[in-house]
Design goal:
Rossmann fold; Hect, E3 ligase catalytic domain fold; 16 helices; 499 residues; elongated; alpha/beta; 44% helix; 3 domains
Length: 499
């Protein structure tokens, strides 16, 4: 019985499909082959799709009578050594089959589909020689074990690597030119949208995203106000503001986003900001804000003692020491022989104040600030829009309604059941109206506590919320006393307002 098997000569035979093959009819064992197809993201315009590559290879194998024992593919993955070591799963499986000794031939549409890397070519050639596997590409079957076959496989590998190196060099030079001209590169960051040329359909630039850009600006302002990133993330999620992938925000996301030079319209190339290059896209934050954010997150002391879940005291890690050249943070210590704890500088240990008196003073001032609508509006830079004014009026009307109902119940003009039902239905409406009446740019902790009933909100809030509000509102500095043991002096608790 005659079986179509592997060619024994290197001479090609041109077929009607313009696919060169070598045919020898013999009674030798079958010639099992494995097929491999690949195309990169930036494929050669003359390349075929992976589907078309494999279809042509199957036709070749069918004409020769070679059984196909496997087909593997890699879509959108480069075979170049400039591809940053990206793994090709299909190629890995192909090499596994070859190394197993189960095939006698590897067919690819052209050699560059298999490799554009000298090291990969050398490894492929070595395993083919060891396992007796021939390489078929461009319609020609070559045996790396022969002098001619080995020469052409090596030459084609060098040509494929040369093309890859030339392409990489062109892209590198184009990237440098693009960077110097301030044109955007890379993936589209949150806060921007693409500008599309209507005639070509190609991206020609970036512009501010009307919904996302204000969120980026808000995140930057709130972080610079020292509001914890986790709290900002929670507030955004509660407002149904999502990332560009539709996922919830996390504190870590915000930290990464905040320090991106892109938002200050600074062009980055190879991880460095290019001096003197003006980006072609509009900024969302100022350069000053960008540098302040970078400096803030680079500070190793930023989160130490600030937002730890173990902190139980109002000013621990927040209040500062006012001694010259110290500026350390305060901790709470139990004073020997005394009933009351005190704030003490953890750096110089020379400034100390009774904790309860400092907390009481700071609380009174903070609550007064939170209850002052004008102060809150000034802090946020809010001009009191119509919608917020209407919401504030609605909240006042609903509070008056509850107060009138309480008086009616106290005068026995309204039953307790009726009053309770009315209050239960109205309180959520008041909370919603107050939320809408607050400036959106306020840190979440401040927005939660601000309002006419700030004192009640303050004492019901957890310590984390109160600390976050203080950190956003003020800087508290404990100044050194004139003489040790002097009575508590409120003037030695310096408060500097933020915003």
């Amino acid at each position: 019985m005659s079986v179509v098997s592997a060619p024994t000569m290197e001479s090609p035979l041109t077929t009607g499909n313009d696919c060169r093959v070598s045919l020898v009819t013999s009674t030798r064992e079958p010639f099992p082959v494995v097929l491999y197809g690949r195309v990169s993201i930036a494929a050669d315009p003359d390349s075929k799709s992976v589907k078309d590559q494999l279809a042509e290879l199957r036709e070749w194998a069918d004409r020769e009578g070679w059984p196909v024992v496997g087909e593997f593919r890699d879509d959108g993955i480069s075979a170049s050594r400039y591809a940053n070591g990206k793994v090709r799963p299909g190629w890995r499986d192909t090499m596994d089959v070859i190394e197993s000794g189960g095939v006698r031939g590897l067919l690819t549409w052209d050699f560059a589909r298999a490799s554009r890397d000298d090291k990969v070519t050398a490894a492929l050639k070595a395993v083919c020689v060891e396992r007796g596997v021939k390489l078929g590409y461009g319609g020609m079957l070559r045996d790396p074990r022969t002098a001619d076959g080995g020469f052409y496989v090596g030459l084609d590998g060098l040509m494929a690597a040369k093309f890859s190196a030339e392409l990489s060099d062109k892209r590198r030079r184009a990237a440098v030119t693009s960077a110097k001209e301030g044109r955007p590169a890379g993936s589209l960051p949150y806060g921007y949208r693409r500008v599309i040329n209507p005639e070509t359909g190609k991206t020609v630039g970036r512009e501010l995203h009307p919904e996302q850009a204000p969120i980026v600006a808000e995140i930057a302002r709130r972080l610079l106000a020292r509001e914890p990133a986790d709290r900002i993330a929670k507030d955004l999620n509660d407002r149904n503001v999502r990332t560009h992938t539709g996922k919830d925000w996390r504190g870590g996301n915000l930290r990464v986003l905040a320090v991106r030079p892109t938002y200050a319209a600074l062009r980055v190339h190879h991880g460095k900001v290019l001096d003197g290059v003006k980006a072609t896209w509009p900024p969302i934050i100022t350069e000053a804000q960008h540098h302040a954010l970078v400096e803030m997150f680079a500070d190793p002391e930023r989160d130490k003692f600030r937002n730890s879940t173990n902190v139980k005291h109002l000013g621990a890690g927040l209040f500062r020491c006012g001694r010259d050249e110290c500026d350390g943070r305060m901790r709470v210590v139990a004073q020997s022989g005394r009933r009351h704890a005190a704030y003490s500088c953890r750096v110089c240990h020379k400034v100390s104040r009774r904790q309860s008196l400092v907390d009481g003073l700071v609380t009174l001032i903070a609550v007064a600030r939170l209850a002052d609508d004008d102060a809150i509006a000034a802090l946020s830079g809010d001009d009191g829009g119509t919608a917020r004014q209407e919401a504030a009026q609605e909240a006042a009307r609903l509070r008056a309604k509850v107060a009138a109902a309480r008086e009616a119940w106290a005068d026995d003009r309204l039953s307790l059941e009726s009053f309770s039902a009315m209050e239960a239905a109205t309180l959520p409406k008041i909370a919603d109206a107050e939320r809408r009446a607050r400036p959106r740019e306020l840190p979440a902790a401040v927005a939660e506590l601000a309002g006419p009933d700030a004192a009640d909100r303050w004492y019901r809030a957890p310590i984390e919320t109160r600390r976050a509000a203080l950190d956003a509102l003020m800087t508290v500095t404990l100044l050194p006393a004139v003489r040790p043991g002097a009575p508590f002096d409120p003037e030695l608790v310096a408060i500097a307002w933020k915003g």
